[in-house]
Every structure is written in structure tokens, then in C-alpha cells.
Amino acid sequence: MRVRAPGGSNYRHLKDMMRGMGLHSVCEEAHCPNIGECWETGTATFLILGDVCTRNCPYCAIGHGRPEELDEDEPRRVAEAIEAMGLRHVVITSVDRDDLPDGGARIFAELIREVHDRLPGCSVEVLTPDFRGDPEAIRTVIEAKPAIFNHNMETVRRLHRMARPGGRYERSLGVLSTARSLDDDVLVKTGIMLGLGEREDDIDAFMDDALEAGVQILTLGQYLRPSEDHIPIDRYVTPDEFDAWKRIGQEKGFLHVESGPLVRSSYHAREQVEDLRLKAAAAG
What we know:
Elements: H1 9-20, E1 24-25, H2 26-29, H3 35-40, E2 45-48, H4 74-85, E3 89-94, H5 105-118, E4 123-127, H6 135-142, E5 148-150, H7 160-163, H8 169-182, E6 187-194, H9 200-212, E7 217-222, H10 239-252, E8 256-259, H11 269-283
Parallel strand pairs: 2-3, 3-4, 4-5, 5-6, 6-7, 7-8
Antiparallel strand pairs: 1-2
């Protein structure tokens, strides 16, 4: 598998903009293999609420510990950067902030509204933490009208406690189900990593659970170990197997399935939205 090495003119421009405005991207913090491709095409996933997570998931490269004080000006600065880039679709994610009463939901909502005000034609996708299952925090985000509400399950039920000791499988399903129930116009999305030790029956059961929770968009990607201190890779999943799971997901009823070794939750996010808009237009 080959990826584009970072270093083109657009990549450098985006990196300079991030540094100059004191912003973070999950592309860098999580060591994403697609950063060269995405940044060179002017697409980035913004990481808000700081770059220190209150949880310590053993698969994740983002730093953990005690976060700094909440940056109230962050929504304005991020929206300003999105406006300067002239994006048509933007993905906004965050670290877990269990130190905040609402988990940071208010900042998500303020940023969504800022983007809508500055760039009415730009659709917004949010990739949120679980907000400890708080339905009011989820409502706060949904009422700001993102195009897509994404919360990653990360792995199958059997491996969930091992990979996400601070999370709960049923809680995450509840987050997705709550989001789906609040606004029919908001698409609901989730994803898992393969290669952590899951079996075929685990993946099949996860798909059924996600569909029952109302998930419409599914992503499946290969787990890549960030360092020797993280969970070892159980196996490398072949491209043919990823293709097979894509077919199975489509047959089960997901509106869109993105499946491949290099797929991450925000990979080809703009293309997903455009594809679903075309399908909706053709259907109605």
C-alpha cells in the first residue's frame, strides 16, 4: 500500500495556516497515513477542544492527561480558517473532554453555526466523543444542524473494553440512536478499525447493531499501530476482504460504505456527502 508523502505547496500552506492560527488537526495528532493526499487537495479534519484527551485509549496516538482551560475563541478561529480555505465540506472532531459538564458540545455547536454563517454552502460533518451518553449534549450538537453526525464505535463488542477502556459499546450505540432520533435531516455515521483481533461474526454483529441504532454511513479501515506502546496489530486485512465487507454492508442496508485498508472516518468525507446528495436527488 502506498500513500502520498506530505510536502506539496497546498500541504505547506495548510500547515502554516494551522500553526499561525493556533489550531490543531486530527490528521497530525493521530498520525493519519492520508495526510499527504488530503492536505494537498485542501481537505482537513479540525481537532477542537485542545490536543490533550482525558481518556487513554491504547490504540490512539493523541496525547492524554489534564487538558488546558477551554478556549472560548476557538470556534471563531476555526471558522475563519475554513472560510479562508473555501471548503465545501469540513470535518470537525475533538478529544474527549470528560472534565467539561457537556463534554464540549456547546463548542461544537458554536463552531457549526459560525461555519454556516460564514460559508452557507459548506456542509459540516462532526465526529464527536460519546459525551458520556448525555442526550442533552447530543441535542445541543444536532440542533446546530450538521450535515453528518459521526461517532466512531472503533471496534466490535467483544474487543470494546480492551480498546476503549473509557468507553462503553452500548453507550456509543445509544449516542448514535439518540442522534438519529432527533433530526431526520442529519445523516448518522460510524466506523470501526479491523485488525484488532475481531472475527467475521463480530463484524457481522456490529453491522447489525449499527443499523438498528440508525446508522446510515459506515467506514471500515485497517488499524495501524502508532508505536510499540500501543495495541499490537493482530493481522493485516486484505483489500479483497475489505471489498467483501463493503458489499455485505450495502446489502444489509447502509446508504454508503467506505471500506479499505487506508480508510479513516473522515477519508473521502466530501465525496460521501456528494454521493448521498446525488442519490437523494435521483430518488426524489
